[in-house]
Amino acid sequence: MKIGVVTFPGSLDDVDARRAARLAGHEAVALWHGDHDLGGVDAVILPGGFSYGDYLRCGAIARFAPVMQEVVDAARGGMPVLGICNGFQILCESHLLPGALIRNDHRKFGCLDQRLVIENNRTSWTSAYADGQEVTIVLKNGEGSFVADEKTLDMLEAEGRVVARYVGNPNGSQRAIAGITNEAGNVVGLMPHPEHAVEDLCGPGTDGLGFFTSLGAVGLLSA
Amino acid sequence: MARVVVDVMPKPEILDPQGKAVLGALPRLGFDGVTDVRQGKRFELEIEGELTAERLAEVEKMAETLLSNPVIEDFAVRVVETDGAARS
Questions:
Q1: CB atoms within 10 A of CB B34
Q2: ipTM computed for the complex
Q3: What is the Cα–Cα distance from A101 to A58, expressed in whole angstroms?
Q4: Number of folded domains that form chain B
Q5: Which of A34, A186, B1, B35 has the fewest CB atoms within 10 Å distance of its CB?
Q6: What is the pTM of this model?
Q7: Shortest CA gap B69–chain A (Å)
Q8: Which residues of A touch chain B, with CB atoms under 8 Å apart?
Q9: CATH number of A2-222
Q10: Which residues on neighbouring strands pair with residue A100, listed in sequence order?
């Protein structure tokens, strides 16, 4: 599949995300924040970093980048979209996902190998995992605390839309939520970084690769 | 010309780690008696021409769309100056 990775001014992990996509057997396509089309890609990744310097709120300015209008339309049409870290924040600001990410409750930037439980393996991005599988991938953020009102949290739980949950709670996220999906399961937001756990050489292992190989599996199934 | 101020504050039920940091710093500096601190943002908008009801409604829209995130923040819009004269 062709996976587009958007680079905003201030994106950091776009190159790693493209590399992870290639390692999973996909063609990686670099997209620019000012683009008005998605270049014929089959899926989009919004990578981590500090788009527009995190000015105003994380993801608040990126949401209005020209390429995001295309991404929002494509996501509503069913295209798989994965937002990692800052990408998750952008998806929340875009209202593609509910809730918001605020500053970690301990007020420090956290950078660690984090254990997660994959609680929903029916999304476009998690089908390569077993239900309830425990994985270790990198978590690095200053504003990764997931918040939403009780009603929204109950709805996410009831509909099985919590994709990944922290083992322990490294940043004060409500109900230890690390990642969620939309109703259709094509849009996933994830605070930890699977693209940093795709090779044995660096990072905590290859547990993150599944997020990128899942896409091929779903693509083949639906083809 | 008119100046419109938009105050954006974290919702009461949302944890405000920055406010907490300030609250923690005050007693260390010898300032006692503060029981809570919430930190927000203040935007000052200079509005061209006459400030009509429509323009003010537009500012509300700006505040809702960009200046605040209604999921975690409340905002308040107020006019502080019109034609250079302070409003009482």
A1: 10
A2: 0.85
A3: 8
A4: 1
A5: B35
A6: 0.93
A7: 7
A8: 56-57, 60, 64, 92-93, 98-100, 102-107, 145, 147-149, 172
A9: 3.40.50.880
A10: A147
